[in-house]
Design goal:
This protein is mostly helical. The protein has eight helices and no strands.
């Protein structure tokens, strides 16, 4: 390939390779630009051994490898700081649960709970009662609902999600 052909390839594909890298590195523009440049530098080095019809696929393949290398390098360079190295003062005799119980009166908690439960459908309330009030295992609930344990797990997940959403919007 001649220098002019390399320039045409770069002009034709640089933007899409840059965009590919940008999306893969979570929109870190500087890193995406560096990775795209590395891809085209490698193209200059190896242009003699490439088949003309597969250049675009080769560019994406190299870009993908460069992104993966960047993540591996970032993980190796990531520093872990122990809590002893920080200046945080943590009272070790602190009982977080006791503090929470003192700060929110029981009647307020019950009122919030009743409000959230009031917005659930009858089927959701029944499932809530089975899981959280009666403390039944998923296996035990399957017979009453005539379904599989996996289905009950999914319903319980959706129920927790709905309760969280209701709690966030109401309080």
């Amino acid at each position: 390939m001649t220098r002019t052909e390399l320039e045409q390839i770069a002009l034709a594909h640089y933007r899409e390779i840059y965009t590919f890298c940008l999306q893969r590195v979570r929109y870190n523009e500087q890193l995406a630009s560096d990775l795209a440049q590395d891809v085209f530098l490698l193209l200059q080095e190896r242009h003699g051994s490439l088949a003309d019809g597969h250049i675009r696929a080769w560019l994406y393949s190299v870009a993908d490898k460069k992104v993966k290398e960047a993540y591996k390098t970032a993980q190796k360079n990531e520093k872990v700081v122990s809590i002893e190295q920080t200046n945080l003062e943590i009272p070790f005799d602190c009982d977080l649960l006791a503090l929470l119980e003192k700060s929110i009166p029981d009647d307020e908690i019950e009122h919030c709970k009743a409000t959230v439960l009031g917005h659930l459908t009858p089927k959701e309330k029944d499932l809530y009662t089975e899981i959280y009030v009666n403390r039944k295992k998923y296996r035990e609930i399957t017979a009453a609902y005539q379904t599989t344990e996996k289905a009950i797990r999914l319903r319980a997940f959706r129920l927790r999600k709905r309760i969280r959403e209701l709690s966030r919007t109401m309080f």
